[in-house]
Design brief:
alpha/beta; 12 strands; Sig_transdc_resp-reg_receiver; phosphoprotein; cytoplasm; DNA-binding; transcription
Length: about 230
Amino acid sequence: MKLLMIDDDTGLCELLSEYLTAQGYQVECVHDGEQGLKQALSQEYALILLDVMLPKLDGFEVLKQLRQTKLTPVIMLTAKGEDFDRIFGLELGADDYIPKPFNHRELLARVKAITRRIEHITNLGNSTANKLSVNNIVINLAAREAYVDEHPLSLTGTEYEVLALLVKSAGEVVSKEQISEQVLGRRLASFDRSIDMHVSNIRKKIAEFNITERIKTMRGTGYVFIQGE
């Protein structure tokens, strides 16, 4: 699978490129936001590793413009302790984030968790045989697409995974820990708001179709997808 890394730290890019190449990935590196966006829009990548602090265009602007036309999975590389960067990145449609400095093995685990979805899509092909339908929401499990009253929902890969899990468990509470482990492939850390932000993004996209709230927050527990009106 081909990955794009957009980071102005050339030394880090070289190290990660060597490490990920040894794990079977093809890695291309770009060192400024403007060129990174151009590269991301002009080619197809399985995943983009995107630094926040970049020359010419910062990572947030790159992600914002990318999401206007593409849903390529993105892992944001954020400064350690910068909660605003993490939350804002997730609001703009990042699939996950990892704070710098990070362990190479942890990054690889995050990359694998996301690229496994792509392998799953490839294996399933374009069959539309398996579908879930609850309260105006249709989940096409084979094509990995979601619809509201036959209108497609423009979801990132992570948002789709979260919504599909909630719809599969309609009427039952799904904890944030379950969502994190099953969707992001990692345990939920203390004060981690990733799941909250992904659910918030899903709610906003569903709300654009003027239907009542479908995902209810169970305070201190998790979320439940409402079965009845």
